Amino acid sequence: MSYELRVRSPGNSSGGWVAEVRSQKPEVRKLLFCLLSSVFCLLFLQPLAFGLQPFNKVAINVMNTPSVEGNMIYLKDVAEIKGNRGDIVDKLKKIVIGFSPPQGESQIITEDFLRLCIKRARLGVEDIELNSPPQINVSRKYYEVTPEQLKAMIQDFIEKRKVTDEGRVIIDNLNFDGRVFLPSPDFRYEIGSNSSLSSTGRISLTITFKENEKIQKTIHPTMDLKFIMPSVVAIRSIKRGELISDKDIKTEDREVNRDTSQIVGEPENIIGKQARVDIKKGDFITVNTVEILTVVNLGDVVNIVAESDVLRVTVRGVVKEKGGKGELVKVLNVSSNKIIHAKVVDSHTVKVEF
Prior knowledge:
There is one protein chain. By secondary structure, the protein is α+β, with helices and mostly antiparallel strands. The protein folds into 4 domains: 58-140, eubacterium ventriosum atcc domain (eubacterium ventriosum atcc fold), CATH 2.60.480; 144-226, no CATH class; 228-291, Antifreeze-like/N-acetylneuraminic acid synthase C-terminal domain (Type Iii Antifreeze Protein Isoform Hplc 12); 294-353, SH3 type barrels (Roll). Helix content is 17%, strand content 42%. It has 5 helices and 27 strands.
């Protein structure tokens, strides 16, 4: 008595399995056949009963509204891909669907187009199950820089570059083309300007946004720039040459419509000086409209004093330009016939420092 049970994989293209039962006795063949059937059910039919994938089956479950990050759309970005063949699943994930939409925009992809992309991959998988809606809406992940954020960036930029620390900056009517979409909030920015940042007026800036040192977007916003500063103003009309006292001026916050470097904010810097020009009531008093009271004039004869701890020398000199107390003026040294610079002490004396 002899019997034989063999299970083999055929060398044909069907990919199935063939079981051969050989025995000299019918009852043995029947027993072996039942045993083989039980094994087959255990290995193949039972997994299906529990919802498991058959060996070669791959399921592609497409999302309705996927969102992508990069410049290209891959199948893995729009679908969940499951299967027993890891190599096939990896290849499916890498299938290119197309270019991503611009940041902040979306595009429609149809089920038929997805099937075409999968077919072009020529993966040789017979059992691919594509579960997809008729069309999907693919959007691009993005981070938007709001107008409020832009205004804060510009405000900080100007505050750090204004001529004086006094006062405050006001930005109005901020305009720029479109909206600022970036791949993520992990960005840095650079601001440049060819406009003056020291006076009120309409200005333009260039803002470049970068991520990982790569330029993502450049915009050219325009805005109205205003400076509100404490400013010394005249409370009465002041004639040219008049001395200015504390009763002639006051300090108030005003919008500065000129170069802020010319504005005087401290009364102490004005009191005791003389008006260089006529100043109207309510006008700003700037560094250009006042001057130190003239003590010496062109052609005045003065004593030039050169003094140290152990020595004092005095010679005659002729003033070559007018000046006030404490100012440096040009003086001709009569003894040497040379022009020197000396500090005005009073109407009769100038001093040279050793």
